[in-house]
């Protein structure tokens, strides 16, 4: 499978010169197990070593001095460093080593010798130190010290400089590969060839060369994005090739729509028609319905269920928690039952005869729809003719769980079941293709009418008493509120205490209608408190962030979030989305600790100004930069090695288009470019079957 030309890169790291049995595990930990991984590990920054005099030593900087050695000072007791006192005409410099290099040092660097020393300067009071100098050379070899050096990731026992040697050797083994880039585009973007790009990446000549937007870095990032998009596109294509029953719009759905007390929004109509296009296609649907909390995804799901029922097929709707499942049931069942469709709720609570009767109804086809929790996965849950499975808050389920529900299809291999996943996690548009590249995505980007925007204010913690006083007045007039305490410390116990203390405080002022839910509570207890809140028996619900995203409590109109600066913006937005659903004007109070950093201030400001989850997610991404800004890894976000999804986001859509085109023109990848593309895929090991993210 692997092209021969890549063999040198697939060799284990131990084949690199200098990587012996002691070093190999360190290299593996840092980079990975094969030479390719070392090649793919790029310098993260550069240091410039300025040659200067001791009086100009700057704490924390890497500098180079020319000094005379004055005295060796062996450690006075264990744990003390070996020191060499050195000087130039402007002052004294102490060189220190913490391991027993003493005799060796005395031999190599005798008193009176002139040396060029380079390393990171540390000041302790009046003492100027260089600990473990990176260079200590006779004066005539000063030119051996580079003025400028790339810095690689390092780990204990494997300093950046050693890793650099391995990286350069890995580079020397990198072959010239056939070009997979479209030549016109490559020329326009002025991107170097693959081999040249790696040479430039490992041989930076200035700051600009380690910048993600340097042409060679963009080239390498693009390669990785393209490899990933190709894999996603291939997976999508193979999924499309699976047949599934063709389901047309049914009169039942038209009746259900008429039974709604409202008109669908334009965005809902659009999403529904996209779903219907898939259902009617004869190919298996894998569609993600994305929309802010409260945007009305459930109705779209319900109408798809009605279509399936019209075609004589059953549907399963699965939610991550019992309370959500029950809410869906209460929304959907009355409408569908008017149409003589039997809908059941199946959760962990169903036991014994009641459960058995529900199961037999599903197996015989008496029930058209099952709404439930993980209980729907159980092996003894058998459908007569499952045609559509819907997964709410899809990121809360693992790939296997989703697949298990699909496996309940008629063929038993999941082939025949249409999948509709729903999510309220606003993935910025620019990143959507990397997260959901193998799903079709419909967005509900419009809220149902009549929602008043949630008045959002940021309030410093010292004004807490004022907020509590207002909350008390609001509760007295029948309003309900969420009060969110963050999980911040290392210890969940401490966080829990903070939430318990807050609940106790509020109870003292507001009264016994203050409830508490947290992640450590048994599910049944948690559900009971949530249910009391839904029913209005609890007026203020104190919660750690476990509050279910999808829970609908129309009467709740106040959201207070403590230490709001600790949350991701997307998360704050989702929390805020739980209020503003009813007739009462709603408010969201973002409590923050003083002092607030400028970025934190800007972030909270975005939230005050915007009510659009996608826009907020995009801005948050800009402000927070790289890494895993939105906690996306959990949503199946790939761990790129050369691409930075934020810095290189302009390349994502280009790579997706490119991948589509490549596969459309040359599905077997046999043209010269196609063969180069195969090499690219082998290079990244992104086989279409590897489950980076999989809708099942
Ligand atoms: P989501 O699951 O997207 O967070 P829901 O489907 O729970 O949102 O809908 C939130 C609320 O909005 C529900 O009470 C629902 O009945 C209502 N709703 C949905 N669509 C509309 C619409 N087009 N007009 C008015 N209200 C709607
Ligand atoms: Mg929902």
Automatic annotation (TrEMBL):
One of its GO terms (molecular function) is hydrolase activity. This is ATP-dependent DNA helicase RecG. Pfam families: DEAD, Helicase_C, RecG_dom3_C. It comes from the Bacteria. Residues 278-444 form the Helicase ATP-binding domain. The lineage of its organism: Bacteria, Pseudomonadati, Pseudomonadota, Alphaproteobacteria, Caulobacterales. Gene3D superfamilies: Nucleic acid-binding proteins, P-loop containing nucleotide triphosphate hydrolases. The keyword Nucleotide-binding applies. The keyword DNA-binding applies. One of its GO terms (biological process) is DNA repair. Residues 463-622 form the Helicase C-terminal domain. NCBIfam families: PRK10917.1-2. Keywords: ATP-binding, DNA damage, DNA repair, DNA-binding, Helicase, Hydrolase, Nucleotide-binding. It comes from Caulobacter henricii. InterPro entries: DEAD/DEAH_box_helicase_dom, Helicase_ATP-bd, Helicase_C-like, NA-bd_OB-fold, P-loop_NTPase, RecG/Mfd, RecG_dom3_C.
